[in-house]
């Protein structure tokens, strides 16, 4: 017969184990409601219950000649906020690229009334952020006012970008989603960058990678412009 003391110890161990799983420091999509859905990723149950989705529409390759379509048709998701995402490797766009993006936005808006607007996914180096701000001003000028403009950002912007250059994003973009990962892995040292995220003077979110290491920096919850998280979904490895 097992003594009461042993039973209590076993129950305590189980409780500690359960808490350890919940506080494992890994990104679990079940804890979030906004997601990136990239080409080739199979949607799971988290997509069905999501409130917000960033869906890759296409990619502008290094020659900037055209938008390579990666999503075959406009999604029909009436109950969700959607962002049409364009991944780009260059800021030298053929004028036809903007025309195709505007056409796709119109198609998506007709199919999904919750379309928020366009997100540009570009790894703008901190030293060249001024050039990126100029590109975004030109894009905003041709984007119909009904569409919001979102961009991805590097964590280094918050730590090392010139404040006057960061200020030029205000009034041009509606949000910045800061990437905290590379590939399938959280970037080491993310805490020290995100502690200074309040320097970015427009509403901002933090992008996390599914299964990546993560513990929330304390400064985020006191940041008045912090708007939550977006999880980049992965297929099982």
Annotation keywords:
single chain; 237 residues; alpha/beta; TIM Barrel; eight-stranded parallel beta barrel; two-stranded antiparallel ribbon; 8 helices; 11 strands; globular; disordered N terminus
Your description of this structure?
With 237 residues, the protein is α/β, with parallel strands linked by helices. The protein has one domain (27-232): Glycosidases (TIM Barrel). 32% of the residues lie in helices and 25% in strands. The protein is built from eight helices and eleven strands. The protein has helices at 4-22, 45-49, 95-111, 129-142, 155-160, 163-167, 190-194, 218-221, and strands spanning 34-37, 52-60, 67-69, 81-88, 115-121, 148-154, 175-179, 181-182, 185-186, 204-209, 226-232. The strands form two sheets. The chain has an eight-stranded parallel beta barrel. The chain has a two-stranded antiparallel ribbon with strand order 8-9. It is globular and about 40 Å long. 32% of the residues are buried.
Give the topology:
Blueprint (H helix, E strand, L loop, with lengths): L3 H19 L11 E4 L7 H5 L2 E9 L6 E3 L11 E8 L6 H17 L3 E7 L7 H14 L5 E7 H6 L2 H5 L7 E5 L1 E2 L2 E2 L3 H5 L9 E6 L8 H4 L4 E7 L5
Parallel strand pairs: 1-2, 1-11, 2-4, 4-5, 5-6, 6-7, 7-10, 10-11
Antiparallel strand pairs: 2-3, 8-9
């Amino acid at each position: 017969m097992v003594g009461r003391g042993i039973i209590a110890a076993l129950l305590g161990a189980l409780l500690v184990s359960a808490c350890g799983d919940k506080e494992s420091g890994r990104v679990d999509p079940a804890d979030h409601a906004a997601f990136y859905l990239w080409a080739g990723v199979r949607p799971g149950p988290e997509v069905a219950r999501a409130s917000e989705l960033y869906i890759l529409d296409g990619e502008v390759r290094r020659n900037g000649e055209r938008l390579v379509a990666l999503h075959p048709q406009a999604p029909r998701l009436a109950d969700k906020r959607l962002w049409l995402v364009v991944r780009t490797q260059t800021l030298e766009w053929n004028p036809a690229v903007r025309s195709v993006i505007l056409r796709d936005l119109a198609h998506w808006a007709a199919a999904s009334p919750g379309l928020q607007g366009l997100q540009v996914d570009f790894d703008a180096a901190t030293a060249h952020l001024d050039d990126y701000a100029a590109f975004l001003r030109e894009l905003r000028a041709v984007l119909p006012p009904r569409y919001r403009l979102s961009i991805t950002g590097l964590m280094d912007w918050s730590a090392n970008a010139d404040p006057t250059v960061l200020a030029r994003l205000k009034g041009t973009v509606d949000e910045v989603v800061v990437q905290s990962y590379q590939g399938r892995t959280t970037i080491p040292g993310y805490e020290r960058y995100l502690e200074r995220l309040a320097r970015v003077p427009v509403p901002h979110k933090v992008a996390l990678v599914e299964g990546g290491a993560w513990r929330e920096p304390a400064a985020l919850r006191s940041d008045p412009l912090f708007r939550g998280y977006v999880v980049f979904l992965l297929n099982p490895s």
